[in-house]
Amino acid sequence: MAEADIIRLSFFGGILAVVAVWEIIAPRRALTDSKGRRWFANLGMVAIDTVTIRLLLPVLPYGMAIMTRDRGWGILCTPHLPLWSKVLIAVVVLDFVIYLQHVLFHFVPIFWRLHRMHHTDLDIDVTTGNRFHPLEIVLSACIKLAAVALTGAPALAVVVFEVVLNATSQFNHGNIRIPVSVDRYVRLFIVTPDMHRVHHSVIPRETNSNFGFNLPWWDRLCGTYRPQPENGHEGMTIGLTEFRDPAKLTLLHLLVQPFVRNKNSR
Questions:
Q1: Would you say residue 266 lies in a domain?
Q2: Least confident among 82-91, 220-229, 256-265
């Protein structure tokens, strides 16, 4: 296993464990669905996503970063900038790309059919941050590859970005309680669970807000920021109105969901 993969896997497991324990100690909301079934589906999707991307893509973002460096591709492939500034610029740019991708996957119907699976979770916790259809993961990886090639992001920046993105995705999907007085300041620098939970509301105007996973600035700058859900965090309904039957949200159903037309879905 490559060193970059070991780093990513270590952070993945570590953050998952920390947030999972936090959810037990200080939960934000009472769960409404079977945790065992949801965790099996969400973590099973991680395994399927990993195998799919390894089979379908000959190179991953870290490998692309090495390739761009060796071939002198990308805007940041210049000797005039110190490494720390290249890493900082690349991480911020890549985060903005992921924000734009997220918006795109909400408003382009064919992409929404893939992404909506993420929103069909009837509860939201640390595992929801890993609940993505394998085809969406492949498309996202292709977008990252293009962004790395165009920017000339250093390999270190790619590792930092992917570790931070995965860590913050699990953190801000966590069913964890953070005092409002603390959250008010933390969300100025990073997307918090209370900020992102609004995005998983069943109300469409809330679903189409707070798209950021890591940096919270893009939503504020682009006008997609919504501070709180209308019905409060304890009173809000999580998920999508057209997918409310837990029996149809098993791992197999999730895999075929993009190809099944629901009369109420886009």
A1: no
A2: 256-265
Domain total of the chain: 1
Residue ranges making up the domain that contains 131: 3-259
For every residue of 185-212, DSSP letters joined together read HHTTTS--HHHHHGGGBSSHHHHTS---
Distances in whole angstroms, Cα of residue 89 to Cα of each of 1, 109, 152, 160, 218: 28, 32, 11, 12, 15
**DSSP one-letter string for 91-102:** HHHHHHHHHHHH
Compute φ and ψ for 238, nearest 5 degrees.
-95, 140
Q: How many CB atoms lie within 10 A of CB 54?
A: 10
Q: Encode pLDDT of 236-256 as tens digits.
A: 999 999 999 999 999 999 999
Rounded to whole angstroms, how far apart are CA atoms 209 and 225?
6
The distance from CA 67 to its chain's CA centroid, rounded to whole angstroms, is 26
Q: Are 56 and 261 in contact (CB under 8 A)?
A: no
229 is a domain residue = yes
Distance CA 47, CA 126 (A): 16
| C-alpha count within 13 angstroms, C-beta hemisphere, residue 260 | 13
For the record, the structure tokens of 39 come out as: 């965790």
The reply to whether the predicted model has a pTM over 0.85 is yes
Kindly report, residue by residue over 95-132, the tens digit of the pLDDT.
Answer: 999 999 999 999 999 999 999 999 999 999 999 999 99
The type of residue at 113 is R
